[in-house]
Amino acid sequence: MVSSTPADEPRPRESDADGDGRFAWEAGAPGFAPVDPDRLTPHAPMPGAPPYPAAEELPPPSIGATATGTPLRRTMPAAVGWGVVNVVLVLAVSGPPPSSSAGWALGGMIVASVLVAGVLTWVVARRRAWPFWVVILVTGLLFWIVRVATTAGVA
Predict the structure, then answer these.
(1) What is the pLDDT along the chain (155 residues), one digit of tens a residue?
(2) Does the predicted TM-score (pTM) go above 0.85?
(3) For a Cys staple, 28 with which of 16, 32, 108, 151, CB 3.0–4.6 Å?
(4) CA distances to 25, 63, 126 from 66, in Å
(5) Pick from 111, 107, 127, 128: which is nearest to 76 by CA?
(6) Cα(105)–Cα(87) distance, rounded to whole angstroms?
């Protein structure tokens, strides 16, 4: 046998002072008049606020103009700079290469890393006009990733 508890039964609603069976917030605050949404202007963010200004017409792009972005001539010097940093670090830490073939292998890996990092940075940044310091940071990240990948097979 299931007994009915007070939580299971619907409670009568408390009414506001008018006695119409609605909560005070359902009737609105004193002086509140509901606004018909169809009467609002299309760009008014709030009732009573002025409408947004009209959008300005942009001039059409000039024919034959290239898009602004980061050119390859800005990414390659950044990659070359990281290649020079790599050469200085290798020479400072381990000294000159023991043989000419080791020197050519080191140079080849650094040149390959410079080229790949410069082109990858350009592919990422070609449609964005990045400041040069961002180009240097992104190129450095890509250079060191590529440099680790080219050194991983040589041990």
Answers:
(1) 555 555 555 554 454 455 565 555 566 666 666 666 677 656 546 666 666 676 788 787 777 766 678 888 999 999 999 999 999 999 999 999 999 999 999 999 999 999 999 999 999 998 888 899 999 999 999 999 999 998 876 65
(2) no
(3) 32
(4) 59, 9, 11
(5) 111
(6) 12
